[in-house]
């Protein structure tokens, strides 16, 4: 890990083969990717400049990072397909690992692969683990004194750095109190989640419930189960109310 005066930036080499594609064209293919934690929550891939298969064309602009220094911004051009401003190079970075690397904007690429498996949203952190365990604990979910769900068959999801999440069978949920939401989120560990709001009388409480219809293979045990924000609802576990945790979702 490399430390700077403005905080800490974790930088680690990965042993995975990583490829990125744009418009079906190969942009980068490397067996020496580097993980850089630009935020404390997850890493970003930086690839050696020598392993690029696309052209970088300077935009004439720069971006400044307090920890990584001044970055030159480039368009990524692959056989006539362009991703504007999708690459950064920290050629004079105070972090010695960065000058020979290129940061490709994850969202600007069409596909990313670790080995031969696609990855989504952002690279998965080697320090984040997701365990999903079937349980017989009694879970009851309330909002303003109204029971939203009551189950003895939860699947409990334990994810590093987050509170345990209680995924409940839909048959144990008051579906009549839920209304559809347009909100969709994506997780590199679980997949794509769709949301439900809660309607109590004439008041709607947005996006308190989510479910994964078709989660990624490693999270199949939560398929079709509903989870509730511990931070925003009262959850009772075996008759005892759980304190509402303080997280970025609070």
Q: What descriptive keywords fit this protein?
A:
7-stranded antiparallel β-sheet, single chain, 250 residues, mainly beta, disordered N terminus
Number of strands: 24
Approximate strand percentage: over 45%
**What is the overall shape?**
elongated
What is the averaged pLDDT score? 95
How are the elements arranged and paired?
Blueprint: E1 2-4, E2 7-9, E3 11-13, E4 18-22, E5 25-30, E6 34-36, E7 44-48, E8 55-65, E9 69-78, E10 81-89, E11 101-104, E12 111-114, E13 117-119, E14 130-134, E15 139-143, E16 146-151, E17 155-159, E18 165-169, E19 178-187, E20 191-200, E21 203-211, E22 225-228, E23 234-237, E24 240-242
Antiparallel strand pairs: 1-2, 3-6, 4-5, 4-12, 6-7, 7-11, 8-9, 9-10, 10-11, 12-13, 14-17, 15-16, 15-23, 17-18, 18-22, 19-20, 20-21, 21-22, 23-24
Summarize the structure in words:
- The chain has 250 residues and is mainly β.
- Helices cover 0% and strands 54% of the residues.
- It is built from no helices and 24 strands.
- The protein has strands at 2-4, 7-9, 11-13, 18-22, 25-30, 34-36, 44-48, 55-65, 69-78, 81-89, 101-104, 111-114, 117-119, 130-134, 139-143, 146-151, 155-159, 165-169, 178-187, 191-200, 203-211, 225-228, 234-237, 240-242.
- Strands 3-6-7-11-10-9-8 form a 7-stranded antiparallel β-sheet, with no helix packed on it.
- Strand 15 (139-143) and strand 16 (146-151) form a beta hairpin.
- Mean pLDDT is 95; it is low at 1-6.
């Amino acid at each position: 890990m490399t430390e700077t005066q403005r905080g800490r930036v974790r930088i680690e080499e990965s042993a995975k083969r990583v490829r990125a594609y744009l418009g079906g064209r190969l942009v980068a293919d490397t067996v020496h990717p580097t993980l850089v934690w630009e935020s404390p929550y997850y890493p970003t891939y930086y690839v050696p400049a020598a392993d690029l298969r696309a052209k970088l064309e300077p935009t004439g602009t720069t971006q400044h990072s307090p920890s990584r220094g001044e970055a030159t911004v480039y368009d990524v051009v692959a056989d006539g397909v362009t991703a504007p401003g999708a690459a950064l190079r920290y050629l004079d970075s105070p972090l010695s690992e960065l000058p020979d690397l290129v940061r490709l904007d994850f969202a600007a690429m069409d596909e990313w692969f670790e080995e031969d498996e696609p990855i989504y949203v952002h690279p998965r952190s080697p320090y984040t683990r997701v365990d999903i365990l079937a349980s017989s604990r009694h879970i009851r979910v309330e909002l303003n004194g109204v029971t939203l769900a009551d189950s003895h068959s939860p699947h409990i999801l334990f994810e590093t750095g987050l509170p345990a999440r209680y995924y409940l069978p839909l048959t144990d949920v008051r579906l009549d109190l839920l209304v559809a939401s347009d909100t969709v989120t994506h997780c590199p560990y679980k997949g794509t989640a769709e949301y439900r709001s809660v309607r109590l009388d004439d008041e709607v409480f947005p996006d308190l419930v989510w479910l994964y219809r078709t989660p990624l293979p490693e999270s199949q045990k939560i398929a079709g189960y509903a989870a509730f924000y511990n931070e925003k609802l009262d959850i009772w576990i075996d008759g005892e109310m759980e304190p509402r945790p303080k997280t970025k979702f609070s």
